Amino acid sequence: MIPWLLVALSVCARPSTGLPPRHMDSVVQIVEALESTDYGFTGTVPELARALGGCSTPGCRAVLGEPPDVPPAPPALSHEQWLLFTQLLHHDAAAPERGAVLAPDGSTVALGPLFAGIEVGLKRAAGWPVPTVEPPIDALYAVTIAEVLGTSFLSARDGDGNRATLGPSGCWDDVDYPQNYTLLGPPSPIPDAVANGAMDGVLLGARLARAPIPLADLLRGYYRTGNGTEEERPPSSYRRRDFGVLTVPGKLEEEVAAMLRVLRVLPPTRELLEDVGPEEVVAIAHQAARDFTEVYVECPAIVPRCMWGARPYRGTPTPLTLPLDSVYIHHTSTPSAPCRTFTACARDMRAMQRFHQDTRGWDDIGYSFVVGSDGYLYQGRGWHWVGAHTKGYNSKGYGVGYIGDFSATLPDPDTIALVRDEFLPCAVRAGRLHRNYTLRGHRQMGHTDCPGNSLFREIETWHGFKGTQTPLQGGLVWLTLLNMSQAVARREPGRAGSVDNIIGAEAEVRV
Questions:
Q1: Given a cut of 60, is residue 486 above it in pLDDT?
Q2: SS3 helix, strand, coil % of the chain, rounded to 5?
Q3: Burial of 468 (0-12, 13-18, 19+ CB in 10 A)
């Protein structure tokens, strides 16, 4: 099926009107209210979350014990807040993403694994003994990711090969007041929201074990809820990098295998593993850990069009023939300042699309992908549609544009690495880009300063960079930065035909 024809699968019915938005800000407000008063429950907020169903699987019960009884509605919360909290923590194995909220960085986070990891961290800080289960397991990984990852791949082994084990991403109905979440593909036990919640649960649980602080303060600082999120990149946007650093090679595979062995002896899951031998357990754990690491640690998160507020494509997109041979690096020049938050980057994406459609008369934003300085890539025309970024070459390669003017400065090191070390290798591994691809700057393909002198010098050091280019339809060939700087006087930014501004270049066909 052509990806742009994929019909989104709605997985969340609209709740009762009047509920607070399903946003991390609402969660922080609830947690703060619960921490500031005696609400008739003797446990911690994460234990209350478990009482409401946030961690009710067999493995979680084996590690943390049976959940406490559900208390009456706390007087510190409004009826609407309590109803939202109970809905978010109610475990639904068929649709785990229903227990998720939108974070300020634009990611979606499932609360169940998040609070489970936090509970383990608080217990460790209080001197909690190691759970007495065999074989020994790391409780922090067991309750966040190891059990759900192992059972997802275990269940898929008997299928027809088409059952999803990871993903997909999804979109909210309204990023300002989110209520309904829609998956963008076939569901799995680990949609992106659960993966994000699990990684955050591991990271925040490990932090609390070292130095416990009030939970509301922890969440507010990590997600940057409330005011002040326009200027600074929130720590949650580093989750993939930080989870990869904390989870040393082999650790995740080891914990998945250990958790499967624990599930083998638990009555609720014994039958599921009765025909699975020790070697197959190892193989399942290996594949599960490898695939999860590739998707959620080694590859960058890409914000889908529906999350940044894209207009519809005008007309019918022209499909690309994959894998492609080339990648063309751009900078936008205008917007000239890097965007460091989801709010700012989404606003820039909408502005560029408006310019490309309304002023240029194109069918859509020209770039295939756009790189924010907030830790995320943004889907433009994406993997499968011909773009409008590099005149004469739009069907031959992906156009990747960095938001900002990088004539005299470079993107942040993490932002450079997002494309160089993550996006490009992942595109090759997914079969969307040839292994021996060619990478060039936009200036090598036509009359432009793009991607700016500083960024061009940087990409000259990247794998796949080629410093020469044959003439394009009789046009001038830009061989090196030096040649170009000697050949043309620098034009004024913002003037049509100079640097990229918020444009790519016209395509071979109507764009």
A1: no
A2: 40, 10, 50
A3: exposed
Residue 54 gets which letter from DSSP?
T
Prediction pTM value:
0.89
431-447 per-residue burial string, b: 16 or more CB within 10 A, e: under 16: ebbbeebbbbbbbbbbb
**C-alpha span between 392 and 444 (Å, rounded):** 12
CA 111 to chain centre: 16
pLDDT tens string 209-239 = 999 999 999 999 999 997 655 578 999 999 9
Looking at the chain, the whole-number percentage of residues with pLDDT higher than 90 is: 77
Task: For residue range 262-310, list pLDDT tens digits in order.
Answer: 999 999 899 889 899 999 999 999 999 999 999 999 999 999 999 999 9
Residue with tokens 């339809």: 473
CB 54 within 8 Å of CB 116: yes
Chain-centroid distance of CA 414 in Å reads: 15
Detail the DSSP E strand segments found in 120-221.
170-172, 181-183
Separation between Cα atoms, residue 234 and residue 20, nearest integer Å? 23
Contacts of 398 (CB under 8 A, 6+ apart): 324, 326, 327, 328, 368, 369, 383, 387, 427, 433
